[in-house]
Amino acid sequence: YVAKQARTGVHVYQPADDQDTPRRLALLTDLRSAVENGEVRVAYQPKVDPVTGRVTGAEALARWTRADGPVRPDEFIPLAERSGLITPLTEHILDTALSACAAWRRAGHEVPVAVNLSPQMLTGPTPVRDVVAQALRRNDVPAGFLTLEITEGGLIADPVNGVRVLHALRHLGVRLSIDDFGTGHSSLSRLTDLPVQELKIDKSFVQDITHDRGRRTVTVAAQQLGHALGLHVVAEGAETQEEFDALRDLGCDSIQGYHVSRPLAPDDFLRWLAEHSVRAAVSR
Ligand code: C2E
Ligand code: MG
Ligand code: MG
Ligand code: MG
């Protein structure tokens, strides 16, 4: 399947290759109707500047609950990617996130929103540039308020077209971010060719940096590389005050993690924003 995809860049759902279990088939049926009915929700997790406390953005994270409980994105996103549902799902997340961003701005919070873009979207049949441009227009949000997070692995299948699409997206004025940095296999030399503004160090390196020398070393190197390339460096997955302080002292520009806030439902996030801006003003 991967080989086929690499050659054609087209995603054809091939059940025979997928080892579909009954649970997966049932999930797929439910996911299709959830996407069609707009039942996938979005949670927002803030990123803050660890020095000033200012909110530098919020990541939109897909949330889906079935009758028997929540399904993790790590399970339903890959399913959507393999079944052609990822494009309508991404359109829904983009629209929801941009409409939330417009609401934050109306409430006086100039906070950019970040949406995860599956690698399939870069080289799939639907021009992702048009999808993004239409969503921005529909919600009347300036392009500079949208960041698209893309994993480095996403550029491996079809690097030439992938990079071309990134340039088209950048041309719209949106910000581009390399997600889960350090976990993929992209060559470092290619990084300098990408029109990106942000690098997110994966949480697997961030967690335990206060105890694990190896992870700390990788985090320092990633941070230095990001800054040498002129990128905004974000650390994801800071769970404790100690991790937060260590990442601040290493010079990370933004920190995202449970220590700052868990991903929140829209109303809770708006309340968090209001309370946080008061706290930040008081401590200044
Ligand atoms: P990601 O883009 O790297 O998102 C960060 C993940 O780390 C989120 O998991 C978030 O809840 C989690 N996280 C943040 N801070 C902490 C922390 O301090 N500790 C721990 N243990 N985890 C933390 P989530 O929401 O389960 O999403 C998992 C992945 O699913 C995302 O990783 C992303 O790759 C994918 N995903 C989620 N929503 C979307 C979406 O709308 N579209 C696409 N294409 N992918 C999505
Ligand atoms: Mg992300
Ligand atoms: Mg990430
Ligand atoms: Mg990650």
Walk me through what this model shows.
The protein is an alpha/beta fold and 284 residues long. 50% of the residues lie in helices and 18% in strands. It has 13 helices and 9 strands. β2 and β3 (69-71) form a beta hairpin. α3 packs across α4 and α5 packs parallel to α7. One magnesium ion binds next to loops.
List the helices and strands and how they pair.
Elements: H1 2-8, H2 15-18, H3 22-36, E1 41-48, E2 55-66, E3 69-71, H4 73-83, H5 86-106, E4 113-116, H6 119-123, H7 128-139, E5 146-151, H8 159-172, E6 175-181, H9 188-191, E7 198-201, H10 203-206, H11 213-228, E8 232-236, H12 241-250, E9 254-256, H13 266-283
Parallel strand pairs: 2-4, 4-5, 5-6, 6-7, 7-8, 8-9
Antiparallel strand pairs: 1-2, 1-9, 2-3
The chain binds ligand C2E and magnesium ion (MG) (3 copies).
One magnesium ion (MG) is lined by residues 180, 202-203, 236.
Domain EAL: 24-277
Organism: Paractinoplanes ovalisporus
Protein name: EAL domain-containing protein
Defining key terms:
about 280 residues; alpha/beta; eight-stranded mixed β-barrel; globular; binds ligand C2E; binds magnesium ion
Order of helices and strands: HHHEEEHHEHHEHEHEHHEHEH
Q: In what range is the share of β-strand residues?
A: 15-25%
Mean of pLDDT: 89
The portion of residues assigned to helices is: 40-55%
Strand order of the largest sheet: 1-2-4-5-6-7-8-9
Instruction: Label the structural class.
Output: alpha/beta
In the predicted model, the low-confidence regions spanning at least 5 consecutive residues are: 1-9
Number of strands: 9
Instruction: Give the distance, in angstroms, between the N- and C-terminal Cα atoms.
Output: 54 Å
Assign an overall shape: globular
Largest sheet composition: 8 strands, mixed, barrel
Rg = 19 Å
Bound molecules: ligand C2E, magnesium ion
Output the number of helix runs: 13
Protein name: EAL domain-containing protein
Organism: Paractinoplanes ovalisporus
Domain EAL: 24-277
